[in-house]
Write a structure and sequence with these properties.
Helix 1 runs parallel beside helix 3 and helix 2 crosses helix 3. The radius of gyration is 16 Å and the shape is globular. The chain has one domain. By secondary structure, it is mainly α. It comes from Polyangium sorediatum.
Length: 83
């Protein structure tokens, strides 16, 4: 095995380990948002939440879900859509 191949495999592994962490973090945050809004999120809202999770992190989104009103959460999902 050459070093470049090893480096490629390491980067490949890091990428998918990180993706697994993000996906694992998304489900609890998604559930919390849905419970606070008392409805399932749309596919666009889910996509937006996943983007925000990547940018802000699970702790920040969890704090927002607990601290903001349901109306403010809904507005946040719409306001951040596509950014």
């Amino acid at each position: 095995m050459s070093i470049p191949n090893y480096e490629y495999q390491s980067e490949f592994a890091r990428k998918y380990v990180q993706q697994g962490r993000e996906e694992g973090s998304l489900e609890p945050v998604l559930r919390l948002f849905e419970r606070r809004l008392a409805r399932p999120l749309t596919s666009d809202e889910r996509e937006n939440l996943a983007t925000q999770l990547h940018k802000e992190g699970a702790t920040r989104l969890t704090d927002m879900a607990l601290d903001l009103s349901a109306a403010d959460l809904a507005a946040l999902l719409v306001a951040n859509h596509g950014r």
